[in-house]
Predict the 3D structure of the following.
Amino acid sequence: MDLSYGSEYSDFREEVRGFIAAHQDKSPSQASMRGAEGLAWQKLLLDNGYHSRTVPKAYGGFGAEPDILKSRIISEEFSAAQLSTGLGGQGISMLTPVLLEMGTEAQKLQFIKPTIMGEMIWCQGYSEPGAGSDLASLTTKAELDGDDWVINGQKIWTSTAQLADWIFCLVRTEPDAPKHQGISFLLFSMDTPGIEIRPLVDMTGDANFNEVFFTDVRVPKDQIVGRRGQGWQVANAILGHERGSLAPPDAAENRLKGIIKLMETETIDGHRVMDSPVFRDRLMKLQGQVLAMRFNDMRLLSARINKGQDAQLAGMIVKLQGTELRHELEGFAIDVLGEIGLAYEDNPYLRGNGSWQYQYMYFLGLIIGGGTSQIQKNIIGERGLDLPREPKVAKA
Amino acid sequence: MEFGLSSEQTLLQDTVNRFLDEQAPLATVRQIAAAEIDDGAIWKGLVELGIPALLVPEHLGGVGLGSLDAAIVAESLGYHATPAPFLGTAVMAPLAFIQSGQQEALLGPMAQGDYRVGIAFGEAIGARNDAGTTVSSGKLTGKAIFALDAAADGYLVATREKHLYFVEATAKGFSRRLLTTVDKTRTTVELVFDGVVADLVSQDPGVFDRVLDAGRVMQAADTLGAAQYALDQAVDYAKQRKQFERVIGSFQAVKHMCAEMAASLEPCRSLVWYAGHALDHIPEESRVTACHAKAHLAEVGRFVAKTATEVHGGMGFTDLVGLHYWFKRIGANRQLLGSPELVREEAARLQGMVA
């Protein structure tokens, strides 16, 4: 057990702290991330290697050798200083790694730089009304007509579709192949004629997602990542990136700190909520769970550095446990607030900007999205514990 | 940076596991639980592996390893539901003697398997009805209940003020009787003191806390091992048992029970490792992490013990499969050295949350 990062990393940490001290006044608020201020901050991060650090220089990155601990130090220091770590989103967190791995040279040159600069926003076209947990049964089809794919069908749960310049999209190109081998991964502009976006209002009251309809959308045939029929492998490479990142333990720790503050300031009959043993016990139960997930995350970090270490199961459980825990944390904060916990939108008694109720609902969405808790349990059972798959139902 | 066990620690755990697989199988556990034989032979084997010398510094003739090493041994003992006086004689008593510099002459005989020390901490953790001790002019009077190890040669007794005393089982005025519990893999006793000569070990509550924290981390590690065993058994059974012409593990209802056990237990491993490491290396966190390890493992352990039994169906309820030894061991670990509510309240107090 060695929890230190080693002396060779102290210099790097000092370097990061130096950058933060010099530039922290330029960090934008969450709301202005996509504005001029946010894009300037993004450029500053890119130029100094604090964003897209390992993306090659030719594609607009910093070109550093992958170093897991340096990346971790950057996020630790930025988090401690409560600074924005720059732009996220599906183009940066999911498409960029996939292009680096499977894209053509021309695709890398065309797409990566504007994506990480924040000039090109992406959305993801995966789920369909009839293809949720069983994503590989998707039916949006693309047929080759001359030099174009012609796309018809519908996507759903497409976040940021209304903002997106481009979409990366799974479509069926080989209708006669087995379902996992008939899918291709296409890239196209959201300005292409034949695309209609309808916002999907969810239980939070916001439209965090959209429905996207395609009617005879024509896409140049070289805008495919990987080969025809290889789209499922491409998509799975990115889903791996998404799952672990849905419920990072440091965010859970920050929410727990927020709850502690809430319990120290909110009162019932003039007594702090913290002074109620019933609430305190619930808090301590949750703190135990948060700690377990934090140390589980340290183990996962360690396993990425020390290749011999086995942490496969520890990684598989993160999406399930992490999203369920966040939902529980947010729900507990609502209980701490009692009837005030109901406040929403313009209510003058709102606490934490209404984020407790909002996140309580939003994390229920994340329990379902990105592979539901039930799908996660199938994965843990089948791949983690080697239990047999559900037998296929014979077709009538 | 390496968050995990070293190759030496893995080797230590493999060695203990191999010994217990061979020398302490379920058949032996059953015999000891039924009081047909005692745990002497198993303890002798563990002594030969150096287990009670593990935490004793080299200059006192021990092996000089740390709390995390002891925790992974505790995990192996839990995995095998091993009857052994490990908690008192290999961890809590040696730590108390080393920390206080008292009774060090006993460390040698303890490490050689010639002397066992039981633990009576109930008064200082959460005093109950029908018990209570007082000390006056070096003599102990009163009663301690649910002390660990009926076969101990002496007991480390904590008073309500967190003072530690040592009494010998042969002392005048000392008597004890076995207290039957659900967990037959380890023994607990009622100790009655009638003006028994008691040697002061420590009046420093810090020593008591350090010893208690270590004991709690060991209990957590024992539960981790026991719950892992229950999960492994459930998964094996779900792969073999057929109903409706299918192995039951292919039904999502059963598969999800197994997945839920794995999902809640796997992070516990990291919690126990960290808490073990913190005892020796991160004093500013170690008290809180020891409490959380104890309480969280108690909760997850209870869930896994119940669920693993259910996966076995009716067989899980029988004596035949023997899973109940682990169910009961997990239950005992939960109550001994502080039940979850007590321990969580202590965690809150340690963080300044209790007015």
Notes: The two ends of chain A are 57 Å apart (CA to CA). Chain A has three domains: 7-87, 122-229, 246-384.
